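lol ok so funny story. i was supposed to be doing the assay writeup but got distracted and ended up predicting the structure for this chain instead. priorities right. anyway since i did it might as well share w the group, maybe its usefull for someone
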Amino acid sequence: MDISIVIPLYNEEESLPELTAWIKRVVDAHEYSYEIIMVDDGSQDDSWEVINELRKNNEHIKGIKFQRNYGKSAALNEGFRSALGDVIITMDADMQDSPDEIPALYNMIQNEGYDMVSGWKKKRYDNKLTKNIPSKLFNAAARKSSGIKLHDFNCGLKSYKKKLVKSIEVYGEMHRYIPIIAKWAGFKKIGEKVVEHRPRKYGVTKFGWERFVNGFLDLGSIMFVGKFGKRPMHFFGLWGTVAFMIGLGIFLWLTITKFFFDHTGLTQRPLFFFAILAMIMGTQLFLAGFIGELIARNSPDRNNYLVETKTGL
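and the output, tada:
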């Protein structure tokens, strides 16, 4: 199979018929073999019923319905698990991503050798204050910390090699940083393509202010897990040692000055309490490192979701 198109959705019943018809026109014109995997993230409208109706007329449409809302990362992860195509393309269901970009995204993976291609919505129709400015800040922080030169990490329109999506795990709200996850997994050829951003035609945005804080927290998590996920003691042990040695050094210095240079009591000097605090913190960091090692070696599966039903899979 040439292409798997994975579409996470939540309350998008109005846009699905038009979106799937547009996708069909594009892939049929290029004679691709394909599947459309729609992941209903616990919608409260009739999105699942619409998916079933669309499948009656197009057997390439397949669906996964979560029992409750888990978020976009969970939907993408389940879609990636089920995808069979040589190239996997993701897009949002709100009609702001254009299916006309599919052939170029497919070509960059299949013929130009990219592991992953991320869309760049150079001209955006979102609110500048609530979306565009925060997005620029997120992308600047992600570029700086990861070294990946992308303008738009969070664009939903992306294409991937099959091997890549089968090698990574997306959970929490990490879908914003799939390029970073891919880099840590060893996939280095990550490209970018300017794509069309269309004004929203149906429904309302599903993202609130909390995503801005979550975005920076997730970036920190990704960078930490990427570097130290398999060796947490290297992080906690290092800083635990530094803190403990600083505390011990101060304590020894205070002890020497007490007995050889003055008669001030140890507990009457503020540095004494700082030394004790530093040694306690160092010990706690060491313990955190040991616990982290145990968790890393016995980590449970983080990506088991309650799937209510499937169709076509």
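The first strand starts at residue 3 and ends at 9. The chain has two domains: 3-228, 232-297.
back to the writeup now i swear
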